[in-house]
Amino acid sequence: MKLGIAINTKNCMECYNCVMACKDEHCGLATTVSAPQPHEGQFWIHVTSKERGDDNRKVKTSNVPVMCSHCENPACMAAARDGAVYRRADGIVIIDPEKSKGQKAIVDACPIGAVYWNEELQIPQKCTMCAHLLDEGYEKPRCVEACPNEALYFGDLDDPNSEVSRVIAAGKATPLEGLQGVETRVHYLNIPTVFLAGSVYLRGDETGDEPASGAKVTAVCRETGEVRETRTNYFGDWEFEWLVPNAHYDITIRFEGYPSVQLSAYTDQDHYVAETLLA
After folding, report:
1. Judging by DSSP bridges, how do beta strands 45-54 and 57-67 pair with one another?
2. What is this structure's pTM?
3. What is the mean predicted confidence (pLDDT) over 123-152?
4. Angstrom distance (rounded) from CA 28 to CA 39
5. Which among 162, 217, 226, 274 is least buried, having the fewest CB atoms inside 10 angstroms?
6. Cα–Cα separations (whole angstroms), residue 211 to 197, 205, 237, 273
């Protein structure tokens, strides 16, 4: 059995239920695998939120829950002495609260900052995937249990028919920055890269222009040849997400009865490309 978690970032709505559930379970409570988590200063799971867009147009946020990834070859384990960090038979990586005392190098070794230093106890601490509860027969960690929007999944990664395995197979796997090329038990899906967006309107009379709902928008990446297509929504808006960063895109807008419009954009960051008026 190979236990793991899938984090589908596009479903995270930054409610912090996972954070509060973790705090509720671990703050002030010593378990079979961890010392109590301090009430302040540590977040064994936390949500990073990024504001996206430019020129005050198409501004939105993306949310990514981040936790210890329970790596197959953990950097924290390599930095530890005397077996202070170990991996269980089910793959969960644990920091021994007794053996790790004074070993701050374990904190410094984590490439994503998921290990915290408990100044009072002089020990490193991190997510245990609620191993103590799983050992008691619980079906999932508290953070997964608390998520109301199917952003977190838990199960046996060795079972291709498990829910977590099916979610990973169906999603767009994206490693966290710092974990590229590292095999982990926590899988991140659909982490946004870059978006391009815009709006299309039809020239109206003196009462004003109207949204061009259903206009066909095509984006072609010059570097890769990838072709993306979408249609404008009821408000005339279009968007392409998960684009290749630092690439050139040629965009064509077509609407029956109107001349097509050509645009271009560079994905150095998220961009609201244009407000296009068809006449």
Report:
1. antiparallel
2. 0.83
3. 97
4. 8
5. 226
6. 15, 13, 8, 16
DSSP letter for each residue of 194-212: --EEEEEEEEEETTEEEE-
How many Å apart are CA 25 and CA 36, to the nearest integer? 9
The amino acid at residue 28 is G
Q: What is the pLDDT of residues 36-64, one digit of tens each?
A: 999 999 999 999 998 888 876 767 889 99
Measured CA to CA in angstroms, residue 114 lies from 125, 179, 186, 228, 245 at distances of 9, 12, 12, 36, 26
Question: How far apart are alpha carbons 140 and 124 in whole angstroms?
Answer: 24
Residues in the chain: 279
- Residue 243, exposed/middle/buried by CB under 10 A (0-12, 13-18, 19+)? buried
What is the distance between the alpha carbons of residues 112 and 74, in angstroms, rounded to a whole number? 12
pLDDT digits (tens, 9 = 90+) for 70-80: 999 999 999 99
